[in-house]
Amino acid sequence: MFKGILINKDQQGYHTDLTDISNDTLPEGDVTVSVSYSSLNYKDALAITGKAPVVRVFPMIPGIDLVGTVTQSQSNTFAIGDTVLLNGFGIGEKHCGGLAQTAQLKSEWLIELPSGLSPRQAMIIGTAGYTAMLSVMALENNGVKPEHGEVIVTGANGGVGSFAIAILAQLGYTVIASTRRTDQSDYLKSLGAHDVIDSSSLSDAGRPMVKERWAGAIDSVGSHTLANICASMKYGGTVTACGLAQGMDFPASVAPFILRGITLVGIDSVMRPLNDRREAWQRLAALSDKSIFDKIASEIKLDQVITAAEQLLEGKIRGRVVVNVRD
């Protein structure tokens, strides 16, 4: 038996509890991991509260991130004692995830914890920081350079936004943070934002094209916000889409794509190939200023997860939430 968050859907309805979980609950996998840290993401909060149909199989342990130590292995890749991490691949949705003290996983989903990162730091980064790095890599691959001009980051107070600002700033980009919580401007500027704008200026229906401003953009909001950003991109600019906090719709025009040659890049973090994962995590481990981790993160225990999930969906949590599953 081990402690964990367990979601069930039965005659009593949809319910989530912190409970003792039997090893028999775990699905098949060739590697067993003693989890040390997980994290609380937007998708986890949706799963825990049942406010979106994230969970596909019941009972389910949520948690799309985890880091821990291998305790059993039938894999030729990982040995007992190795420290491994995992983001995505359907854990917390179709396969029991990281918000518990034990996980049983497929070895092809795992990568070794990069040197230079502690387990706790890895989960401060988690899917949010990893997604932010994938977005930055996409901008770079499309030729967006610091000297080309401002890069806007939407949903700036969230985990993806916070890490995107910090990464871009360390790489020399001029970052403009967009947020509805402008009272957090000092926090965003401490991460490296050059300026902060109120997201309400982007969140309503806009014109197909407006004055060019952004050389690049990292958007975790979607809907009208994403459409308005596309409308104000510089010629040849690139936008990465990695979230849908405002909505799944994309009420945009083709005009900026065919008249300004902009590029919209979708960022999938769930099924990303291992080579991309390793590159992103190696670059995250190499960040020169790791003091940002403590600015971005708060730490909670398993018995605080369910309450924190509600707070996250209500927009009351800033940055990243790392979960110590052992204390």
Q: Short description, anyone?
A:
The protein has 327 residues and is an alpha/beta fold. The protein is built from 9 helices and 15 strands.
What would your notes on this structure say?
Helix 1 (42-49) packs across helix 9, helix 2 crosses helix 3 (159-170) and helix 2 crosses helix 7 (274-285). The chain folds into two domains: 2-113 and 291-324, Medium-chain alcohol dehydrogenases, catalytic domain (Quinone Oxidoreductase, Chain A, domain 1, Alpha-Beta Complex); 126-266, Rossmann fold, CATH 3.40.50. Helices cover 28% and strands 27% of the residues. The strands form three sheets. Strands 3, 4, 5, 6, 7, 14 and 15 form a seven-stranded mixed beta sheet that branches. With 327 residues, it is α/β, with parallel strands linked by helices. The longest helix has 23 residues, at 119-141. It is globular. It is built from nine helices and 15 strands.
Write the layout of secondary structure elements.
Layout: E1 2-10, E2 13-21, E3 31-40, H1 42-49, E4 65-73, E5 83-87, E6 102-105, E7 111-112, H2 119-141, E8 151-153, H3 159-170, E9 175-179, H4 185-191, E10 195-198, E11 214-219, H5 223-231, E12 233-241, H6 255-259, E13 263-266, H7 274-285, H8 292-296, E14 297-301, H9 305-313, E15 320-324
Parallel strand pairs: 8-9, 8-11, 9-10, 11-12, 12-13, 14-15
Antiparallel strand pairs: 1-2, 3-4, 3-6, 3-15, 4-5, 5-7
